[in-house]
Specification:
Shape: globular
Structural class: alpha+beta
Helix content: 25-40%
Largest sheet: 5 strands, mixed
Radius of gyration: 16 Å
Strand content: 25-35%
Number of helices: 5
Strand order of the largest sheet: 2-6-3-4-5
Number of strands: 7
Order of helices and strands: HEEEEEHEHHHE
Length: 155
């Protein structure tokens, strides 16, 4: 992003360039009634994993409680936006794969929100604003295939 987040939050027009490296997500049905999450880095190594109960979204086990809490919040918010999402009581195995080093950050949260929104059949901006106080420019950039101009619309 060439325009600062703070400026965009206060009405400025921003320009964002999507990076050519992103994140992919594969969702498969699994046994049981839990969500098994594995996040792989650019080398295919697990950098985060969690088992989340679909009954109450508690973390049954996780490699990083802080990341698990964020993931739980995103998933619960997706369910609030689409009550049919994750309502079948069947388990899932989700694997995400970064195309860049974890320490870059580089929009990994925004691409995750965008991918979960696609999976849940909800608007990614609605999910973003349910879990974040940011401007949403990063969601727009995650969906873009070329540079974009971004401005928050008044309600």
């Amino acid at each position: 992003m060439l325009t600062g987040e703070y400026a965009i939050l206060h009405g400025a027009l921003g320009i964002a360039f999507p990076i050519n490296k992103g994140q992919k997500m594969l969702v498969k049905n699994a046994r049981g009634s839990d969500l098994i999450w594995e996040a792989l880095d650019e080398n295919g190594e697990v950098w985060f994993d969690a088992q989340i109960s679909l009954y109450d979204f508690s973390a049954v086990k996780t490699s990083d409680p802080e990341i698990a809490t964020r993931l739980q919040h995103i998933l619960k918010s997706a369910v609030r936006l689409n009550s049919e999402f994750l309502s079948t009581w069947s388990g899932f195995k989700v694997e995400t794969q970064l195309e860049f080093p974890v320490y870059w950050g580089a929009g990994s949260s925004s691409t995750l929100i965008s991918m979960i929104a696609d999976w849940a059949y909800i608007n990614p901006f609605h999910l973003h604003f349910a879990v974040s106080n940011g401007s949403g420019y990063d969601i727009a950039a995650a969906k873009a295939d070329r540079p974009i101009l971004y401005k928050i619309k008044e309600d």
